[in-house]
Amino acid sequence: MKTINLLVGGPTDLWPDSLRQGKIDGDWIGVDRGNVWLVQMGIKPLISIGDFDSMDQSEFEIISNNVSDIRTYNPDKYYTDTQLALKIASDELKADVINIFSATGGRIDHFISNYLLATEPKFRDIVEKIRIIDKQNVIQYFTPGEHEITKIDMMHYLAFIPMNAMHLSIHDAVYKLDNYYVERPFAYSSNQFDGDKCHFDFDDGVLCVIQSKDA
Amino acid sequence: MKTINLLVGGPTDLWPDSLRQGKIDGDWIGVDRGNVWLVQMGIKPLISIGDFDSMDQSEFEIISNNVSDIRTYNPDKYYTDTQLALKIASDELKADVINIFSATGGRIDHFISNYLLATEPKFRDIVEKIRIIDKQNVIQYFTPGEHEITKIDMMHYLAFIPMNAMHLSIHDAVYKLDNYYVERPFAYSSNQFDGDKCHFDFDDGVLCVIQSKDA
Which of B90, B114, B135 is the last residue of a domain? Predict the structure, then answer.
């Protein structure tokens, strides 16, 4: 399993402790200001992506002195810089798992943009690789079929969020569903594992699953 | 214009300064722990809603000593406590504007649940009254037709997020759209007002509009 981590330019206050302590496995791609933070933590990203316009000269020097592969990129209507980083992690670096950090909190339009990535056809093949992570939440996405997920340590709650109409079954959690027809995007929150594993299946589109904990 | 404010039980760290300083106009409904914070700020909510199970005796006493209308409510499959507060603000208190505070940050399943409220048919008649507010974001919802919005002081960015397929026109912002067919929920972020007002129209479902600022 090859893991690539993305550190994007959102707020730093929702980072999980493991990120702050430098305990995340895998290589890194930095996006915009994420690159500065990575280098300051002693992590050299494999690739730095960004338009770098919002940085001052000293910040850009931190990056250019520490990263051999810098890709200056102006966001266009086809890909945002986070989307480009995802594409590189998957197509070029052949990642099996892509963790995205610093993508929550702050501007909600940015978060919703990242949250909805998984519904875009151009990312359909890689949605199961994506995890958006902060200190209270791990967000994953699934495509139709049968799935098994494992409880993440300390994460107490389990939410199922159909991103579209679908028939959904949740086989083994505190609240179960049996081939239930969900008409539109909806958040089934505050479910819980009743063991270490949960099995579920659905028939269309994308299902978002969030494991979370209280503060 | 009658404004009713809801303080729900989410994180307090994303409150706008105006809330912390007690400068929000209108009466209040408290939901769960939001009631404790209101009383501690010297605000007596008109109505307190919650299951109050997660509170200790001293917290509940703070509420019962200060609020005459306490409605103990166990969330059911039809309404969450926040949804019930919305319904009371609209149906019973006849609010024209319903501001929701403390509904962002923390558990993302809770936020998505609040964010998707506007797509539920049972709330379709009141979605234009709802605003979800934190220190960097004001989220509003609109139903089909022509609309005018006014720039909120200090809010630099303007995002349009169709919650479903629709034809969308943005008449006067930095990035315009002319009867553009949007196939699925998508976040058009980082647009900006080019004056004090922005006019837009669309033909189906619900459109989310977010005014936001950087930290």
Answer: B135
Interface test with B, best of A82, A107, A206 (most B CBs within 10 A): A107
- Closest chain A residue to B211, measured at CA: A109
Q: In chain B, how many domains are there?
A: 2
Residue ranges with strand state E in chain A: 3-7, 27-31, 47-50, 70-72, 97-101, 130-133, 137-142, 145-150, 157-162, 166-170, 177-182, 188-191, 197-202, 207-212
Instruction: Provide the residue count of chain B.
Output: 215
Q: Which residues pair with B197 in a beta bridge?
A: B150
Residue of B74, B100, B112 to mutate, testing the A interface (most A Cβ within 10 Å of its Cβ): B112
In this structure, the answer to whether residues B130 and B215 fall within a common structural domain is: no
**Residues in a beta bridge with A177:** A170
Convert the pLDDT of each residue in B32-87 to its tens digit.
999 999 999 999 999 999 888 778 888 889 999 999 999 988 766 678 889 999 99
Residue B20 sits in the same domain as residue B101: yes
Q: Say yes or no: A113 and A158 in one domain.
A: no
Pairwise CA distance, residues B125 & B49, whole Å: 22
A25 and A86 housed in the same domain: yes
Nearest-by-CA chain B residue for A158: B109
What ipTM was reported for this prediction? 0.94
CATH code, B157: 3.40.50.10240
Residue B1 burial (CB count, 10 A): 7
